[in-house]
Amino acid sequence: MLRDSAGIMANPALYLRRMAGRHGDVVQFPVPHPTYLVTSWEHTRTVLVSQHRCADKDTPQYHSLAALTGPGLLAAEQDAWMQQRPKVQPAFARTSLAPLAAIAAEESRAWAGEWADRGFVDIGPAADRYSLRVLSRFLFGVVDSQRVEDVLAATRAGLEGVLNRVRFAPAPANGTDWRPRLDAAVARLLDGAGDTPFVACLRGMSDPEEVYSQVRTFLIAGHETVASALIWSLALLGAAPHRQAELLEQSPTASPSTALHNDRWRRTVDESLRLFPPAWLITRRTRSSMRLGQFLLPAGSLVILSPFVVQRDARLWGRPDHFDPGRPEWERGQPPGYLPFGSGPRLCIGREFSMSVATAALSELAHRLSWQLLGTPGLRAGVVLRPRRRVTLRIRHR
Ligand code: HEM
């Protein structure tokens, strides 16, 4: 494993895939604590769904996140999670999501308008801005996203601090300076917030620390993930302009607010999330021993799961590394081996939100513009799966 450390650091997602290819569905790592990489769909489902009660989030991944967000919904362990989820679920109910279509349509029109005058664009900043604006309008009713930007900037400073601790990297001794800055930014955001379903949920919480934790959690969980989904979707379509033409043939009129219900746009985003799942790594700790086929994992094992590896498993997906939104697997609705939003009770609360926001932007951009990817994005498997390099597109009017 020490021999492999350069490969792990260079690209952990590809490293996990290589380990699965070399050693099979359940790989044990030679570290003092029992640690397993589990990559078959069947065993992944066992951990996340059928035996979910035997596996909790008491893992380094979620401890690092909780150091930053506090005990919010994403990092919460089972007992806390059972208390928290019902309190925020109403904010993502069908009726609460109703205003999202109009917000996403308006913001995607603004995005397409900005790009329409340009010859070359860098996808990253535009996708970040769009996802942040939609998220801040939906969650907090805040149109001027500066207050949200402040929370995210303070969060990023904190994330660096937390990651430095995990990496044992030298950092200033006052390494928790980011905390008051973050708390002040969250307070300012809440001061300016409107009357949204999410804010109503926050108002129902009696403990201010819980409110702050959920605000940080939902911003972190919802911002970069959606931006990453958009970056990859645009890059993949940019590398295959004939796919853009196909999409337009099948859906000739632009309608960002209904794109979510159009199979073609949905499958394009699904296919992109399959190849480049923003949340490429999911971890659990077994609370009791767990049987996975012929393997018995002892209680207290760290289990590493990877949507990135499962979603490129050649036993489940024909030509697994190939981008094909028309592939037959999508005809079956939610095919086996597809879990970009996780699975089981801890399934992402923001799934429909994300699909709605991503399909709206793609449909609007594709109806107004065509684009071509320049260069190769590479892969950076950090907290979220993002391109390693800046992703540039050449833009043309339709
Ligand atoms: C493309 C976008 C997104 C992807 C790929 C994604 C992925 C995921 C995954 C894989 C999980 C499960 C983690 C686990 O089981 O350990 C998860 C959970 C979660 N996500 Fe997302 N997510 C996305 C967008 C969002 C958005 C927009 C929000 C909120 C605005 C959000 C909030 C959460 C929360 C709070 C949880 C924890 C749910 C629970 O445990 O009850 N996510 N997400």
Write the layout of secondary structure elements.
Elements: H1 5-10, H2 12-23, E1 26-28, E2 35-38, H3 41-50, E3 55-56, H4 60-69, H5 78-88, H6 94-97, H7 100-116, E4 120-122, H8 123-140, H9 146-167, H10 178-191, H11 197-203, H12 208-239, H13 241-250, H14 263-275, E5 282-286, E6 290-292, E7 295-297, E8 302-305, H15 307-310, H16 351-368, E9 369-374, E10 380-381, E11 385-386, E12 392-397
Parallel strand pairs: 2-8
Antiparallel strand pairs: 1-2, 3-5, 4-12, 5-8, 6-7, 9-12, 10-11
Q: What are its keywords?
A:
alpha+beta; 3-stranded antiparallel β-sheet; Cytochrome p450; 398 residues; 5-stranded mixed β-sheet; 12 strands
Task: Summarize the amount of helix as a percent range.
Answer: 40-55%
User: How many helices in DSSP terms?
Assistant: 16
- As laid out across the biggest beta sheet, the strand order is 1-2-8-5-3
Q: What is the general shape?
A: globular
Count the domains.
1
Highest CATH level, the class: Mainly Alpha
Bound chemical compounds: protoporphyrin IX containing FE
The Rg value, from CA coordinates, equals: 21 Å
User: CATH H level: which superfamily?
Assistant: Cytochrome P450
Low-confidence stretches: none
Quote the average pLDDT.
90
The total of beta strands comes to 12
Could you tell me the strand content as a percent range?
5-15%
